[in-house]
Automatic annotation (TrEMBL):
The lineage of its organism: Eukaryota, Fungi, Dikarya, Ascomycota, Pezizomycotina. This is Carnitine transport protein. It comes from the Eukaryota. Residues 56-522 form the Amino acid permease/ SLC12A domain. The keyword Transferase does not apply.
Length: 560
C-alpha cells in the first residue's frame, strides 16, 4: 500500500525530503529541536507542537480503537448472530476499513496537519461540508468520552460497590484532565503504555483461546469448534428461518461498524507527529494490519469459546452486570472453572477502557481545535498552553464527559446503548466524509496534472476503493437503527440516538452554506498547496530527537 516519491510536479525538488536525507542537517541541539517542534507546521495560528514519536503514533492508533467494545460488547454480537455471522461480519467490515485507511493515508501523509480529514472536507469539497463534517466528528469523539467513563464505572463495580458511581466518574474525569492538560509528549507516553497493555491482553486472550480449545483447561475438554456445530454457526434474530439468520448477521455487521476503527486516530495525531512524512505512512500500514488481525481473530476466538445461547452471558447483558462479567472470555473462564484469570482480565479491561477514553479526550479536543483553526468554531478555542495543549478545547470535552452522570439515575446498560447508537451513526458519517473528500482530492490531482506516483503514500485500487468505502458507510449509516421499524420494537430513545446525527448534519451543512454563501469546489480550483510550505519547511529542517536512554531506544526500535 506504500509508495514513496521525490517531489510533486511544479513544486521545489526538496518537496518530499525524508529524515534519512536530512541526517546531519542542523546542529541537533535541543534549542533547534524546540524551534522546529513549535513551527506553525500545521497551518496559520496552529500552536501545537510536534512531540509524538513513531511509537506513540502507532500505539495511539491501537489504543483509541480497542476499548470495552472489543472485550465485552462483542459478546452481544455473538448472542444476536452466532459465531459464523460474527466472524463474517468483522471480516467483511475490515475490507471497508482498508478502503477508508488508504483514502485517509494518501491525503494525510501528503499534508500532515492538525485535524486533517476534517479540514480536507472543507478544502476539497465545500466549506459547508467541512463545517458539518467537523462538528459531526467532534460530537462523535466527545460522546465516546462518557461512554468509556460509564464502562470504567461498570468495570470497577465488578469487585465492589463501596465507591459510589458519582465518585468514580469524578475521579476518572480528573485523571483525564491531568493527562491531557500536560504537554502532548506526556499524553503520548501515557497512551503508549496503556495501549501496550491492550496489545498484550489481546495476544494473551488469543493464546488462551488456542490452549483451552485443544484441551489445556481444568476440565480437559478438547472442545475445538464444537459450538459452531451445536448450537450452531448461525442464530435467528426477531424472526425464524432465513430472514432471522440474515437479521442476525446484519446485527453483527452493525456491531462491527461500531467496534472497528483505527485510521482516524492515527490521522488526528498527524499535526503533532515528529517527522510525519516518514512516520505516518508506516503508522497507517502497521495500525491497519494489526487491528484487522486482532478484530478478525478476536471475533473468531469469541465464537470458539462460548455458544451463542449461553445463559450466563445473556443474563449479564440484560441485567447490566458489572465489569467484564459479560465478556465472552470471562464467561468461558467461568464455564471451564478457571479461577483468578477473570480478575486479571477485568483489571486489564479497566485499563483498556481508561485508555480509550483518554484517546477520545485527545481526539475530540484536537478536532475542536481544528474547527477553530478553520474559522468554524470560536477563535478563543485557539488558546494553547506553553506546552502546546489547546486548554479550552480540552476543558469543553471534559465538561461533555459529565454526561456519564446519566448512569446515576439509569441502568448503566441503557446509558451505554444510547451512546453506542449515537456514535455508530457519527462514525459512519465521518468515514463517508473521508471517502468523499478523497474522491474530490483524486479528481483534483488528475485535473491539475499531479501524478500520484510522486506522493509519500499511494493507496491501491483507487478511486474504486474510495467508492467502495463510501457506498458501504452510507448504507450502514441508515441501517444502524433499523430495529425500531420492526413490529413491536419501536423505541423513541433508540430512534433519536440512531438517527439524530443523520438529520443534524444536513442542517449544519445548509445553515453554513446559506450564511457563508459557500460553493462546491471544482477539481481544477481545489487548493492542494495550502500549508504545504510549512510542512516542507519542517521536514527539510527536521533533526531526529535521540533516545534518552537504552530502554527508550529499544522501545523506539520495537514499536517505531
Amino acid at each position: 500500500m506504500l509508495s514513496t516519491g521525490s517531489n510533486i510536479e511544479g513544486r521545489p525538488p526538496n518537496t518530499f525530503k525524508t529524515a534519512d536525507a536530512e541526517k546531519g542537517a542542523g546542529s541537533g541541539s535541543d534549542i533547534h529541536r524546540e524551534v522546529l517542534a513549535s513551527l506553525s507546521s500545521s497551518g496559520h495560528g496552529d500552536k501545537t507542537h510536534r512531540k509524538l514519536k513513531s511509537r506513540h503514533i502507532q500505539l495511539i492508533g491501537i489504543g483509541g480503537t480497542i476499548g470495552t467494545a472489543f472485550y465485552v460488547q462483542i459478546g452481544k454480537g455473538l448472542l444476536n448472530g452466532g459465531p459464523a455471522s460474527l466472524f463474517l461480519a468483522f471480516t467483511i467490515w475490515c475490507t471497508f476499513i482498508l478502503a477508508i485507511t488508504m483514502c485517509m493515508a494518501e491525503m494525510v501523509t501528503y499534508l500532515p496537519i492538525s485535524s486533517p480529514f476534517i479540514r480536507f472536507a472543507g478544502r476539497y469539497v465545500d466549506e459547508a461540508f467541512g463545517f458539518a463534517a467537523g462538528w459531526n466528528f467532534f460530537i462523535f469523539e466527545a460522546a465516546l468520552v462518557p461512554f468509556e467513563i460509564t464502562a470504567c464505572n461498570i468495570i470497577i463495580h465488578y469487585w465492589s460497590d463501596a465507591v459510589p458511581v458519582g465518585g468514580i466518574i469524578a475521579i476518572t474525569l480528573v485523571i483525564y484532565g491531568l493527562v491531557n492538560l500536560l504537554a502532548v509528549k506526556w499524553y503520548g507516553e501515557t497512551e503508549f503504555w496503556a495501549a501496550l497493555g491492550k496489545f498484550l491482553l489481546i495476544v494473551g486472550l488469543l493464546i488462551f483461546t488456542f490452549v483451552v480449545m485443544v484441551g489445556g483447561n481444568p476440565l480437559g475438554d478438547r472442545f475445538g469448534f464444537r459450538y459452531w456445530k451445536e448450537p450452531g454457526a448461525f442464530t435467528e434474530l426477531y424472526y425464524t428461518g432465513s430472514l432471522g439468520r440474515w437479521l442476525g448477521f446484519l446485527q453483527c455487521l452493525i456491531q462491527a461498524s461500531f467496534t472497528i476503527a483505527g485510521p482516524d486516530y492515527v490521522a488526528m495525531a498527524a499535526g503533532e507527529a515528529e517527522n510525519p512524512r516518514v512516520v505516518m505512512p508506516r503508522a497507517f500500514n502497521a495500525v491497519f494490519y494489526r487491528l484487522t488481525a486482532f478484530f478478525v481473530l478476536g471475533s473468531l476466538a469469541v465464537g470458539i469459546l462460548v455458544p451463542h445461547n449461553d445463559a450466563e452471558m445473556a443474563l449479564a447483558f440484560s441485567s447490566g452486570a458489572p465489569g467484564a462479567a459479560a465478556s465472552p472470555y470471562v464467561v468461558a473462564m467461568n464455564r471451564l472453572r478457571i479461577r483468578v484469570l477473570p480478575d486479571i482480565v477485568n483489571a486489564m479491561v479497566l485499563t483498556a477502557a481508561f485508555s480509550a477514553g483518554n484517546s477520545y479526550v485527545y481526539c475530540a479536543s484536537r478536532s475542536l481545535y481544528g474547527l477553530a483553526l478553520e474559522g468554524k468554531a470560536p477563535k478563543a478555542l485557539l488558546k494553547c498552553s506553553r506546552s502546546g495543549v489547546p486548554i479550552y478545547c480540552v476543558m469543553i470535552v471534559l465538561c461533555i464527559g459529565l454526561l456519564a452522570f446519566l448512569q446515576v439515575s439509569n441502568n448503566a446498560a441503557v446509558v451505554l446503548s444510547w451512546f453506542v447508537s449515537l456514535v455508530t451513526a457519527s462514525q459512519l458519517i465521518n468515514y463517508s466524509v473521508t471517502c468523499t473528500a478523497y474522491l474530490r482530492w483524486y479528481a483534483a490531482l488528475k485535473a491539475q496534472g499531479i501524478s500520484r506516483d510522486t506522493l509519500p503514500y499511494k493507496g491501491l485500487f483507487q478511486p474504486y476503493a474510495g467508492w467502495y468505502g463510501l457506498c458501504g458507510c452510507c448504507v450502514m449509516t441508515f441501517v444502524g437503527g433499523y430495529t425500531v421499524f420492526l413490529p413491536g420494537h419501536w423505541n423513541v430513545p433508540t430512534f433519536l440516538f440512531s438517527y439524530t446525527m443523520i438529520g443534524v448534519c444536513p442542517v449544519l451543512f445548509v445553515v453554513w452554506k446559506i450564511v457563508k454563501k459557500t460553493k462546491f469546489h471544482k477539481a481544477e480550483e481545489i487548493d492542494l498547496y495550502k500549508n504545504l510550505d510549512e510542512v516542507e519547511e519542517y521536514q527539510a529542517n527536521y533533526v531526529p530527537t535521540p533516545s534518552r536512554n537504552r530502554f527508550e531506544w529499544v522501545l523506539d526500535w520495537l514499536f517505531g
